[in-house]
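--- STAGE predict ---
source: upstream dedup step, 1 unique chain passed
mode: sequence only
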Amino acid sequence: MKHFLGINWSIRFTRDNAMFWIRFFGAILVPVLAYLGVNFEDVTSWLFLWTLVVAFFSNPYLVFLTIINIIIMIPDPTTKGFSDSIRAQHYVKPGGK
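--- STAGE serialize ---
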């Protein structure tokens, strides 16, 4: 599974890859908050957060849009196609280390 679809998933999902996680959570949060008309500062309680989660999953359009956002951010923009470069597939740590 490490190189499924030619992508080095172990590098993408490592906790050391902060940029991936920022982009990943942004791909989820931005469409949800924008579509529902909510700002970050409006989320002031766990009940309100749960209400947003329920509203998200009860809206097929929003779920589909979020899945598309996540798929779009996965490919390495420096390579042609969907897979990582041969060099990136052999990385042990993000950044080629």
